[in-house]
Amino acid sequence: MSRRRAREAAMQALFQLDMNPPPEGGREEWKRALDAAWEDGATEQANEKRREADYAYAWTLLSGTCESLASIDETLTRLSKEWKVPRMAGIDRSVLRLAVYELRNNADVTPGIVINEAVELAKKFGTDDSGRFVNGVLGSMMREEK
Question: Do residues 133 and 122 touch, judged by C-beta distance below 8 A?
Answer without folding.
Answer: yes
